[in-house]
Amino acid sequence: ELQQKVEETEVLKMELQMLETERVRLSLVEEKLVDVLQLLQQLRDLNISKRALGKILLSTLESCRDPQPGKAQLFEVLDTLQQELTACELLHKQPTEQAQSPHSLSNPLVISC
After folding, report:
1. Is the pTM of this model over 0.85?
2. Strand, helix or coil at 22?
3. Residues 73 and 64: beta-carbon distance below 8 Å
4. H/E element holding 94?
5. What dihedral do alpha carbons 109, 46, 58, 75 form, nearest 10°?
6. Contact at 8 Å (CB) between 52 and 84?
7. Where do the structural domains in the chain lie, given as residue ranges?
8. What digits encode the pLDDT tens for the residues 54-71?
């Protein structure tokens, strides 16, 4: 009976360790997702076209077509998307250039076509 309790304890320890590993992984995915959403919000505020966003997304998906060994595919896609969005030219323009843009709108909820 004592041996059975020891074995059950070991199984519970392993399950706890797996749960902790999964919690850390989900935390990393959440952080990456928040970063990506913030970049998308910045680009939306700069009135980036849907076509440009589509190209960024398609480029991301194309580069993640073949998953890297040992790397979670979801995290890889989010990481690549963050890199693609960060590299977007509009994010690196000076604020004065953005303010002079003819597409600048006073209401950020209005989308220009």
Report:
1. no
2. helix
3. yes
4. none
5. -90
6. no
7. 1-65
8. 999 998 888 888 766 666
